[in-house]
């Protein structure tokens, strides 16, 4: 019954796919990124119920004032910034260590092609990290979450159908 267990994650993705469009945007995102004060207050009321949220709103306004002079950078600008090199090197170390975990060797591949498979996986992970971070900057997280869950549910449904047939 492992295929039923596998389809459980597809069911969870399908449930999240249906309910995600009904959730409001994050209040800090609406205020800090979009500059929508009315939308921020509306989202606060929708998330937290009726009440007085002036303290939280004032805190977000102070944060907006502090970050007003900072520029939002894209991926290439971030790579040129020396202050993020420690975090970047930690991330690269994690990506490289995944290649040493033996995942390619356990896939029943010929020993001669395992280095190429590992290199291909590493390159595809690197490309996906760069593409995903660029896409997130352009479209925002909500659309990508919704699309990701839709794609995951579709792929798992196709996988389950192909297993049954």
From TrEMBL:
InterPro entries noted in UniProt: GLUT, MFS_dom, MFS_sugar_transport-like, MFS_trans_sf
Residues annotated as transmembrane: 6-24, 113-136, 143-164
Alphabetized UniProt keyword annotations: Membrane, Transmembrane, Transmembrane helix
Topology relative to the membrane: Multi-pass membrane protein
Gene Ontology terms describing biological process: D-glucose import; dehydroascorbic acid transport
Domain Major facilitator superfamily (MFS) profile as annotated: residue spans: 1-165
CC per GO annotation: plasma membrane
Superkingdom of origin organism: Eukaryota
Entry GO MF terms: D-glucose transmembrane transporter activity
Localisation: Membrane
Protein name (database record): GTR9 protein
Organism: Cochlearius cochlearius
Species classification: Eukaryota, Metazoa, Chordata, Craniata, Vertebrata
Gene giving rise to this polypeptide: Slc2a9_0
